[in-house]
């Protein structure tokens, strides 16, 4: 087992996106990657909610263990419910 892993942390708003690569000790958790990436400081406009995290489009817990090559995604809150958006488009 390697001593360290390399992961990407990504976050996007309507205006911009940011991707940071970080190297962490093997066995690191999702929240540790987010903290080490510095994305939250670089994008203060993002309302961070630890329950809105994913790895390769799959929701995960902040305490889930990462594997080498994972991509941690910080999701922003929805501005409109997808069902409501569909209803509005139909009208």
Number of helices: 3
How do the strands line up in the largest sheet? 2-1-5-3-4
What structural class should be given to the helix and strand makeup? alpha+beta
Helix content: 10-25%
Distance between the termini: 56 Å
Gross geometry: elongated
Q: State which percent range the strand residues make up.
A: 25-35%
User: Any low-confidence stretches, pLDDT <50, length ≥5?
Assistant: none
Largest β sheet strand count, sense and barrel closure = 5 strands, mixed
Order of helices and strands: EEHHEEEH
Average pLDDT = 92
The total count of strands amounts to: 5
Computed over alpha carbons, the radius of gyration is: 15 Å
Would you write up a description of this structure?
This protein is α+β, with helices and mostly antiparallel strands and 91 residues long. It has three helices and five strands. The protein has a five-stranded mixed beta sheet, covered by helices on one side. A hairpin with a 4-residue loop joins strand 1 and strand 2. The radius of gyration is 15 Å and the shape is elongated. It starts with a strand and ends with a helix. The relative contact order is 0.24. The mean pLDDT is 92.
């Amino acid at each position: 087992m390697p001593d360290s892993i390399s992961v990407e942390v990504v976050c996007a708003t309507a205006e911009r996106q940011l991707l940071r690569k970080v190297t962490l000790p093997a066995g690191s958790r999702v929240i540790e990657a987010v903290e080490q990436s510095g994305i939250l400081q670089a994008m203060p406009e993002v309302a961070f909610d630890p329950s809105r995290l994913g790895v390769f489009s799959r929701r995960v817990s902040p305490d889930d263990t990462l594997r080498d090559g994972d991509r941690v995604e910080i999701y922003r809150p929805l501005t409109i419910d997808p069902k409501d958006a569909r209803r509005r488009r139909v009208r």
